[in-house]
Design a protein that fits this description.
N-utilizing Substance Protein B Homolog, Chain A; globular; mainly alpha; single chain; 147 residues
Length: 147
């Protein structure tokens, strides 16, 4: 498993803990991320992804709701919502990560941690959100493989 994948999985676990614990982000970082025996680069990316994702949760949820029109938002699996938030966070906040990598990683994480249908759901919603963000000019990525 790549170090980025490991960091994404750790960020997923931290977001899940944050969603249900009522603890502060700092407490979640200390008890979920910093306890991992991983290289500093993995921990640093996991923390950055976690912090940026939870700080923009409402914005990301609006993007998800706009594209999950046939779904009651409260009935979407929590892990699927979190995975989609992480993907959107990478789209908007990590200019050096190609959008297709973010989607592919989200799909693989959904296969591992969520339901049997989650990977298809995550793929479809993430692709639609990416198209929306590109159409609005919200994606600022440049370089080989980044558009």
């Amino acid at each position: 498993m790549s170090s980025r994948r490991k960091a994404r999985e750790i960020a997923l676990q931290a977001c899940y803990a944050f969603e249900f614990s009522g603890n502060t982000p700092r407490h979640v970082i200390e008890t979920t991320i910093l306890v991992m025996d991983e290289p500093a680069a993995v921990i640093d990316f996991a923390i950055a992804l976690f912090e940026k994702t939870i700080s923009q949760k409402e914005e990301f949820d609006k993007l998800i709701m706009a594209r999950a029109t046939n779904w009651d938002f409260t009935r979407i699996a929590v892990l699927d919502k979190i995975i989609l938030r992480l993907i959107i966070c990478e789209f908007l906040n990590f200019q050096y990560i190609p959008p297709k990598v973010s989607i592919d990683e989200g799909i693989e994480i959904a296969k591992k941690f969520s339901t049997e249908q989650s990977s298809r759901f995550v793929n479809g919603i993430a692709d639609a959100i990416l198209a929306d963000l590109k159409a609005r000019g919200n994606i600022e990525k440049s370089g080989r493989g980044l558009n």
